[in-house]
Structures are given as structure tokens and as C-alpha cells.
Amino acid sequence: MFAAHAQLRPSYDVVIIGAGGHGLASAYYLARDHGIRNIAVLDKGYLGGGNTGRNTTIIRSNYLTAEGVKFYDESVRLWKDLAQDFDLNLFYSTRGHFTLAHTDAAMRTMRWRAEVNKHFGVQSEAIDAQAVADALPMMDLSCGGRAPVLGALYHAPGAIARHDAVAWGYGRGADRRGVEIHQQTAVRSIELEDRGSGPSVVGVVTDRGRISTRKVLCAVAGATPQLLAMVGLKSPIYVHPLQAMVSEPLKPWLDPIIVSGSLHVYVSQTARGELVMGASLDPYELHSTRSTFDFAESLSMHMLEMFPFLSDVKIVRQWAGLADMTPDFAPIMGTTPVRGFYLDSGWGTWGFKATPVCGKTMSYTVASDANHPLIEGFGLDRFRRYALTGEKGAAAVGH
Predict the structure, then answer these.
(1) For residue 132, what is the domain's CATH number?
(2) How many Cα neighbours within 13 Å face the side chain of 389?
(3) Beta strands per DSSP E along 339-389
(4) What's the rounded Cα separation, in Å, for the pair 394 and 242?
């Protein structure tokens, strides 16, 4: 799908740290749309081996803030054309997305989100319990009597895609345009200089040698605080594991995507028949992608509250990613106080769905050294200014 390179060049116009979806998409659009092709994408592991390959592949734009709705709606628009762009089947499948409400307070939030979505032309509507029952006859709406469903937010454009194919598509497209992808290449430090106007990037030191560059894009999950420390910056990011699991293949029976914030469950069924299931963050900060029995037991319990007939279905694998969480549940993107150092971080539980729009907006930002209009609300300086972009109510089970 892409070439291996035995050596690093002495210099590159842009160095991107992180060969996941966001980093590769940024390289792809830098080369395709901005004509910048002397780019190195570095990853200490392997392409797509981080959160790009460790998520539940849900794509949606039913967010709560003006910034979030416009940003993710553009991403959904880009998703629809990606397979054609790549000449690669991404298994993109529009399913419809139900965010269940189990309390009166949750229903108020669903109505709020629906109105914000409609204001920006996004298809979402608050529906009552009968409408949920009609759309999801396979589900026990009493949820075992513990948390009956009162209604939901229905988001028709909700979709899923094959996550590894997205990384391969962006990687191959970038490679064909001259971008170098260097796997198994760890960044040891980022070199800065200050000639009186503030710090600027001048180079990157890796375990395979030094690179001269004036522009570095940080697009990693889990390691963001360490990379920020290399350039003397701090952030409010804290890192939690986020686990998921998948069942044995079943005959297709679940077409839509179902999310419950109260039960901490989200589930969809793949084209191969597997149930892909996730839950909330692990309730402690930990830089580890280990899996736990406690997670599998708890998630299975909540799944059976909604779908009791799954009691004999086997779980075949389980995994975890590292979620960069921010206090307002919105990402941190764009320029920073260090000239030539750009951030694409703080993605928490919602990074996969933003892959195309992140590539578009960050490539613009790196090429022009100015934030793209769609990411103005996501700047690092918003925390200093106490101007937060509060997406917690739309992060489903992220909290």
C-alpha cells in the first residue's frame, strides 16, 4: 500500500508526528490540496496502530455547540466521497443513530441538541418512546426495569466505516504524492530556537537521526502531554483508557447504531455480523492499553438489559485505546505559542469521525500558518481565556 524508506532525509518542509488517521489525512491534503510534498510522517509504532485501529468506527454530526455541529457536519460530507477519492472500499454504511434518553433531563438535552442540529441543517430529531419502539422492535425498552427508555435523539446520517481501511487509504494516497511514512521511528525531542520573537521549531530528533524542519504537527493520542513538554507547553489534557469489544458474527439483525449514556453502551453491527460495543472511559487516568475483565462483565450486563436474547453470544476479542480528554470535551487544534508547532489533539472518544475534516483543516492551518475558520473554537488559548467550547452534553458516553 505504501513504500518503506530505509533512511530519513536531512530535512523536510513538514514533519507530522503520528501515523494514524489524523496525521495521514493531514499529509494527504497537504500534498493534494496545497502542493507540499516534502513531508515525513513519523510513528513510534505502526501505521494506524493507535486509536485509529482502536475505536468503534461511529460517524455522526449531532453535536451540541455551533462549533461542533459545523465541524462534524463537514466531516460527514467528506466521508461520503472518501472511497471514491481513494479508489478503496471503506465499507462506509449509513445506518441512522439513536441516542437513547432514560430520564426527563436527558430528553431535554435531546430536544436541545435536535434544535441546534436543525439550525445548522443537520438531520436530527427528538422522538418519543413509541417511535423508538417502532424503529427498534428488537430492544427491551424497559432495560430490565432499571432505566426505561423515554425517547431518543434520532440522527439519520449516523454511519460506520472500516477504520483500518481509512488509514490505508490516506497512507497510500499520501505515499503516491511523495510523502514519506516512517514507522518504528520514535521522536526523542523537538528543537527550538528563540531570536527574540518567541520560540520557533527548527528540528526533530528521532531514534533514527535528526531532521531539520520549520513545521511540526503533533497528531498523537495518549502521548500528547509528553510531546507538548518537549516544546515547553502545558495543556489540560488527561489520558484515560477507553475499551471496546466485539462479539462472534451473527446473522444481521441490528441495522442502526444505538447509544445509551445512562447505561454507558454504544453498539453497531458490522458487515461481517459482529457486534462492536463500547462503554465509558475507565474511571482513572492511566497510560496503558490493557483490557480488563471488569469492563467486559459490566458492558455485557448493560447489553443484556437492552437485548436479553444475546445471553448465549460469545465475545471474541477486546481492546483499549488512549483517550486524550479535555475539560470541555472539545478537541485542541491549530497554531500554538511555539511558531511552527501545530496541535491536533484532545480527541477523547470522538476522534475517528473527525478524521477527514481534521486532515482538511489542519493541512490548511499548517500550509498557511493560520487557523482554519472551522477550528477557531478549538484553540489551545481558550483555556487561558476561560472561553470553553462545552461539548459534554453531546459526547454521549465519554463522561
Answers:
(1) 3.30.9.10
(2) 25
(3) 341-345
(4) 17
Is residue 85, in this structure, part of any structural domain at all? no
Three-point CA angle 355, 357, 363, nearest 5°: 100
DSSP 8-state class, residue 79: H
Q: What confidence tens digit (pLDDT) does each residue in 9-19 have?
A: 999 999 999 99
299, 279 contact by CB (below 8 A): yes
Which tens digit of pLDDT belongs to each residue from 215-261? 999 999 999 999 999 999 999 999 999 999 999 999 999 999 999 99
Q: Tell me if 183 is assigned to some domain.
A: yes
Distance CA 207, CA 43 (A): 11
Burial (CB count <10 Å: 0-12, 13-18, 19+), residue 273: middle
Neighbours of 189 (CB within 10 A): 13
CA atoms within 13 A on the CB side of 309: 7
Count other Cβ atoms within 10 Å, centred on residue 388: 17
Q: Amino acid identity of 188? A: R
Is residue 398 very low, low, confident or very high in pLDDT (cuts 50, 70, 90)? very low
Q: Among 275, 296, 325, where does a domain finish?
A: 325
DSSP 398: -
Cα–Cα distance, 98 to 235 (Å, whole number)? 33
- Looking up cell 437513547, which residue turns up? 100
Query: Would residue 311 count as lying in a domain?
Result: yes
Amino acid at 314: K
The pLDDT confidence band at residue 399, using thresholds 50, 70 and 90, is: very low
